[in-house]
Amino acid sequence: MSLPEQDQDRAEGPTFPTAAELLADPSFLRAPEVVVPRLAWKRRVTLLVGEPKKAGKSTLARGAAASKTHGVSFLGEPCGEAGTVLWCGWEEDLGDLLRNSVAMQVDPERMHVGVNVQTQAEVRAAILRIRPALTVIDSLVEFAAKCPDPPKSGDAQGWRRVVGYLSDDARESGSAVLLIHHSRKEDGASRDSNAITAKVDASLEIHPHPTDPAARKIKPYGRWPMEDFKLRLEGAAYTLDGLEVSIDTRVLRFITANAGCSTRKVREGVTGRAAEVDDALRRLERGGFVVDRGIEGRGSAWFAVEGSQGLRVV
User: Fold this and answer.
1) Residue 174 buriedness (CB in 10 A; 0-12 / 13-18 / 19+)
2) FRET partner for 25 with CA separation of 20 to 30 A, picked from 13, 116, 156, 182?
3) d(Cα 82, Cα 80) in Å, to the nearest integer?
4) Averaged over 40-58, what is the pLDDT?
5) Are 255 and 303 in contact (CB under 8 A)?
């Protein structure tokens, strides 16, 4: 006597295609799509780990968010097209968050602030509704407290479940998710459970420099090859230590230091071909980082732009 058709399917179980069959789809061989260089990748979850109030985790995340909202380079590498950012933050006062975001020159029209999302389900609904290029969760501990059955410090299964919620959201929405988390004092590694670092796609440990307050060393771990790197915060811009600074950053620095300078002065003061400098000026002007306040017929006068208020609150 044969089994009913649905019971036959149940008895056969799931299918297991060969690797050759899967590789017929070339997308499987592509590296993860970069959303913010060295920090965030499409449909992936990154853990950003560092000491509270010392490492500058949220500041670095804001720098990444600012670059993504304008579509300009970050750490000397392209961010791709400008995209929206969803910032779910529960550790900062809203006024502090807005001022600090404006100081980093985030485009307020492309940044949504999730101050009213108070449960895991509401965070998920916001991600799926907005479908941001980048989602920042500040912090993982605060997010975990809003999940069903919040895990305790050593609860591996509970923490795996919490990170799993955000992994599912990243995969479904296409967003790059950046989780801010605290580290242990003794070694700078992630607190609470090894299940957290095992579940995310990439983990970045931020280590402050012992004598240089503007410098940071990043120790990355991920599912694809990554290298250690060092960065510096200068004004509202992050740069890689030891590597060439992008022409956009050099032009912005020159204008910041020489307010009201002409295009000719920028060309003379920034190393590179005049056409490259002009292209950088156009990108910075389009991104809202600089403005030409010169009078028509009398020449240009470039100024760095201070951020404006108006971030969207969801």
Assistant:
1) middle
2) 13
3) 7
4) 94
5) yes
Q: What is the pLDDT of residues 199-250, one digit of tens each?
A: 999 999 999 988 888 899 999 999 888 889 999 888 778 888 765 567 887 7
| Residue of higher predicted confidence among 263 and 253 | 263
Copy the structure tokens of residue 280. 């950088």
Query: Taking the CB of residue 161, how many other CB atoms lie within 10 A of it?
Result: 17
- What Å distances lie between residue 308 and 51, 218, 302, CA to CA? 30, 31, 18
* Amino acid identity, position 168: D
Backbone angles phi, psi at 69, to 5 degrees: -65, -25
CA angle 43/189/191 to nearest 5° reads 85
Give me Rg for the CA atoms of the chain.
22
Amino acid at 313: V
Sheet holding 202-208, edge to edge: 237-240, 229-234, 215-222, 202-208, 45-50, 176-182, 134-138, 85-89, 111-113, 312-313
Report the phi/psi class of residue 149: left, alpha or beta, with left for phi > 0 and alpha for psi in -120 to 50. Answer: left
Of 241, 240, 237, the C-alpha closest to 251 is 237
The 3-class secondary structure across the chain, one letter per residue, is CCCCHHHHHHHHCCCCCCHHHHCCCHHHHCCCCEEECCCEECCCEEEEEECCCCCCHHHHHHHHHHHHHHCCCECCECCCCCCCEEEEECCCCHHHHHHHHHHCCCCHHHEEECCCCCCHHHHHHHHHHHCCCEEEEECHHHHHHCCCCCCCCCCHHHHHHHHHHHHHHHHHHCCEEEEEEEECCCCCCECCCHHHHHHCCEEEEEEECCCCCCEEEEEEEECCCCCCEEEEEECCEEEECCCCCCHHHHHHHHHHHCCCECHHHHHHHCCCCHHHHHHHHHHHHHHCCEEECCCCCCCCCEEECCCCCCCEEC
pTM of the model: 0.77
